[in-house]
Structure formats: structure tokens, C-alpha cells
Amino acid sequence: MDKSDIVSAGCNLNCSTSANRNKYSDLLTVAIVASIIALFAISPVARDSFGAINRSHGMIMSFIKFAILATFGEVLALRLTERVYLKPGFGLLPKAFVWGLLGIVIKSMFVIYAPGVKALLGYLDLATASTSFPIRIFVAFSISLLNNIFFAPVLMTLHKMSDIHIATTGGTMSGLFSSINCADLLKKINWDVMWGFVFKKTIPFFWIPAHTITFLLPTDMQIGFAAILGVALGVILAFAGTKK
Questions:
Q1: Which of 84, 176, 185, 223 could be joined to 94 by an S-S link, Cβ 3.0–4.6 Å?
Q2: Can you tell me whether residue 89 is helix, strand or coil?
Q3: Cα dist. 183→109, 150, 154, 193, 199 in Å?
Q4: What is the pTM of this model?
Q5: Are 164 and 188 in contact (CB under 8 A)?
Q6: Is the pLDDT of residue 243 over 60?
Q7: How far apart are the first and last CA of the chain?
Q8: Which are the contacts of 182, defined by CB distance < 8 A and separation ≥ 6?
Q9: How many Å apart are CA 71 and CA 90, to the nearest integer?
């Protein structure tokens, strides 16, 4: 056996080991997600307790839910695009911290936009006090439309800036809190992708319909559903980063 055969055998062994590790990680991930879903589906106590904590500590729970779910979306996107769950410099903890802060901002915007848009519709005589389903859909769509037009682009831009900052500072918490040059970060954003894909396509075709459903839900369920959508947001923004 010559040197090239030995190298080839070593590469095959490493590839096989990596593939097995990924399969184990995939199974573990599916098992954890399925277990959590089953817990809330089967146990009324778990649902009631979670709901009570949600109502009592809305901002804290928004931080936790987005920190976990939206970051999971980015991890999932990494698995789909690069076949690994984590890589050096990915910055799992910094990303989770940033998503948690964005979760608080999103919760705040929900509190502001929902009654604000309803007041606007009332002022314009475009909605009545009727609780009929068509009126409820119209109101929910209006809240989602204005929220996604005026707030979502700012949120997505802030997230992209933080993502670039985390990547350029080594994916560490100390790097996250290092000096930030906002002008430089804005220049590094691929605006062709940000406008042509993230803003122009995902907002009208995904986020406005998705958040229309969000605002049809009871108030204490909205941020939870939005956090689940945060998984999709993490995946979308991560995939957007791979587009040329």
C-alpha cells in the first residue's frame, strides 16, 4: 500500500466517522424536539404552567424563546448548508444573546403595533367593533402589513449587522461587546441579497401572511408563535448569507 492509498483510507475513515456523528446528532435533535412537542401536547399542566409564566413574565419569556428558537433556526440552517451543527467562529452564545434582545424588541413592537393599528383603522372608519371572522382577518392583516413594512426591515438589518460583527470578532461573547463600527457593518451587508431576497420576497410572501395568523391568535399566544416563526427567520437569514 503506497502513501496515496493510506491518505485515501484515512480520508474515508474520517468522512465515515463524521457522517455517523452527524446522523447521531440528527437523531438526537429530532428526539429532543419531538419530546418537547409531546410534553406540551400530552400534559395540560405543562401548557398551563407555561401559559402562566408567559403572562406574568412576558419580556423575559420573549428573550428566552427567541434566544432558543431563533438560534436553533440558524443552527439548523448551518446543518443544511454546511452539514454541521456548529463550527469554529459560529458564535452560538453571542447569537443566542442577540436573538434574546431582538425577542424583547419584537414583543415591544407587538404591544405597540396591535392597539396602534386598531386605533388607526378606527380613526379611518375602516374597521368596526364587529368580531366577525372577515373583520378579524382584515385587522390582523393590517397589523401584520404595517409591522412588516415599517419594523421588519429594521429588525433584519440589525440582525445582519450583529451577525457580521459576531463573525468578524471570532464568535465570542467578549468579541460581541467589543467596539462596533456601525457604518462599516452597514457597508459589509450584501444589499442586493438583503433587498432582492430578504426584503422583496420573504416579507410579502412569507412574513405578512405568517404574522396575519400570529395576530389572529390570543395575545398570550402571539409571541410564542412568533418565536416559532423565529426558527424560520433564522433559517431564512442564514441561507440569505450564503446567496451570491
A1: 176
A2: coil
A3: 25, 21, 15, 18, 20
A4: 0.84
A5: yes
A6: no
A7: 43
A8: 161
A9: 11
